[in-house]
Amino acid sequence: MKILVIGYGELAEEFAKVRSDFDFVGIKRSGCSQLANVNMVNCDYSLGLPEQVTKDDYDWIIFFPKTSGKSSDDYKIGYLSQMTAINDHFLSAKKIFISSTRIYSGYSNIIVDESTPPKPSDEQGEIIELYESEALKHGNNYVLRLGGLITNKSNFVKLVLDKQLFLDNKYINGIFISDVINLMVKIMQEGIGQQLINVIMPKYMKYSDFDSAFKGEPINAAVKSIHYNDAAKFKIKSIKEII
Question: Which pTM value belongs to this model?
């Protein structure tokens, strides 16, 4: 299986590491990979996809949007600049577009799932909503909305608790890196019946469940999935397992 990853980063590198039977071509601004099954192409994808990439055939395309800053213009470039090119250049390839649970940032103290309409709270979130809409126009595309990514080296929840980076109570919407990879492998090898999936731990908790310093009702939404929520399929089912 040959996979093109646009916006190659930590998650893609871990994916290639655990699936050495897959061949990867990665587009990244700079840097390399030491993995034998990865061919890295250094370029800024927002300036256009290089011919050495577009002339080949791939079974799957994975797009990880990358932004150079936090402004709305940065988001437009990172998320939208190559959507037409990705869909037009690789007609026969199936595609996974990585999105974010930020799409629900306008909700507070409720449970949301894939049936809940997006409600972004800022222009950047509205750009992500447009990005998802463009991806879902094509029947062979998937959109995965990731919660906050947690790895063996990086655990944002533990950092918040240890440093008390804020004290407003929030639902903890996280996902462990290996569980994202397992879902992508399932999609590629078996398929899944839905185009849009919230990729989130199946058991949600609040910061106040760990520390009483976090006060009040959650100011965000608890993100759930109605399409992919079988706890038996997850390595890390709840944030409690890795705090």
Answer: 0.96
